[in-house]
Every structure is written in C-alpha cells, then in structure tokens.
C-alpha cells in the first residue's frame, strides 16, 4: 500500500457566504473536511494545505493580504503542516507540492476542497498524470452554479459532472464516511 497524504485545496474565507465568491454547499464540505483532517492527524497521515492567492492586488478575488485569502479557521493548518501558496488553478504549477509529496514518500493522495470544477479538478488530474493514486471525497468538496452560452448549470449538477469525470478516468470517488470506514 502506498503512503497516503491529504491535500486540502483552497478552503479559504473567499468561498464563505461573507466572501467574494460564495460556494454552494461550502459549510457541509468544510464540516466533512474537518472530519477528514482530524482522522488524518490522528493516524499520522500528512495533511498539506493549498491556498490560492492572486498575483496582483488588482485582482477581484483572492487579493494578497485580504481576509479572503486566509484559510478558514475550521480547517486551519497546525504547526508542521505545509501550506502551499499557488497563483494558478493547478496546485502543482509553479509550487513545491510534488516535491513535498515525494519527500514524504507519498504514492496516494486524498483530495478535498474547492472548487470542484476548477482547483480540485486541476489538482486531481495533475496528481493522476504524475502517477499518484487519487481519491476524491465528494462530500468534502464544493462548487457553484456555472453559466455558459445562456445555459446555467446548478452547482449540484456541476459537482456531479466533475465527480463522474474523475471516477471515469482519474480517481476513486467516495464519501467521507466510506473513506473513514476504510
């Protein structure tokens, strides 16, 4: 069995109802993330936190130094848990995430966080492309409604489509409870 790590993607204040980009289901996703992180800490599974920060103070969201870029208190890193700051959708791009995982001998990653259709998606696909075994805990992720060409897809459908795509070719997709049950 590969050594496992939990990657917590962008569970930041910007996604709360008080933030500039509130997500549907963020409270439930964070509640599940709290459980996942607690179990990882209890069992010695490394927890790596990823936070998005715009490269410019002129950006409309994730402005450096703002409250929005802060990791939510409920899932705040503990001393010794790495925080990888990224400026792109993909947590592996121009960061040391892969080096951090490899230094720990990780072969399997468990991905939770936000947004299902963007940063979670990019991390899952990149991790799979790098050869990691990937598990996504669908109920510890959140997203929002998307619109394109006059069609609006509700967040639940966006999320379901992403999870179906992961399960088709990139990851094992399961619930927090099923993952905890082992």
From TrEMBL:
Protein name: Cysteine hydrolase family protein
A molecular function (GO) term: hydrolase activity
Cited CDD domains: nicotinamidase_related
Domain of life where this protein originates: Bacteria
PANTHER family: ISOCHORISMATASE HYDROLASE, PEROXYUREIDOACRYLATE/UREIDOACRYLATE AMIDOHYDROLASE-RELATED
One Pfam family named in its UniProt record: Isochorismatase
Domain Isochorismatase-like: 5-155
